[in-house]
Design brief:
By secondary structure, the protein is mostly beta strands. It has helices at residues 57-66, 115-119, and strands at 5-11, 16-19, 25-38, 44-56, 72-80, 89-92, 98-111. A hairpin with a 5-residue loop joins strand 6 and strand 7. The longest helix is centred in the middle third of the chain and has 10 residues, at 57-66. The model is unreliable at 122-139 (pLDDT under 50).
Amino acid sequence: MYHTIIIVGNLGRDPEMRYTPSGQAVTSFSVATNRQYTNNNGETIKETTWFRISAWGKQAETCNQYLKKGSKVLVEGRLTSDSATGGPRLWTGQDGQARASYEVNAQTVRFLSSRGEVESGGGGTAPGDDFPPGSDDENIPF
């Protein structure tokens, strides 16, 4: 069996790179995807889903070098489940609310922001693509 997931979103914080004991590079970063829709009552609803991404080898080094908080990326990879729950990693936020994060082992990472957008702090976000209130780094479990 085989599965793949494709995510397009913005980095929630700068990537963090480390090396395994065997010397292989691994870079971790979080990506937020946003969805906006109007419900039956005419209210605009904004949803943000967070994914924790792990990139390996040369791709990890490249991600660490060029990605920054706010960078827009497309990630293609394999969804990995929490061994304890069989689903997303469950945790409790600082506000006491139950939360979940999805973990993805990246096979491909495409940079969608231009260098100028990231360096100027623009992050390459489109109108309506910004993070909703309360989705700052304090609420990210990693």
